[in-house]
Write the structure tokens for this entry.
Amino acid sequence: MQSTASVKMYTRPGCGYCSAARNLLQHKSVAFEDINIAGNSELRREMEALSGRYTVPQIFINDRAIGGYDDMAALEQSGELDRLLGAAQD
């Protein structure tokens, strides 16, 4: 799929859910910004402020927090993920 969406994902090394989220996006050929928060308290605080959550991954599509891997997988199951990824940026 050719995505017009801006996708950002806050991650850390060794996180299985982060790997699963990367794999899903790569399988869909979606470009994304992978933001490694390991050892960076400023990036962690940024992630928490934007998402209201403390766990990784935290995924954003067009600056909208969609949650973590389980949330993205549920969107994929419902077909909603493709709609979000295809949505034009404002």
Q: What stands out?
A: The mean pLDDT is 93.
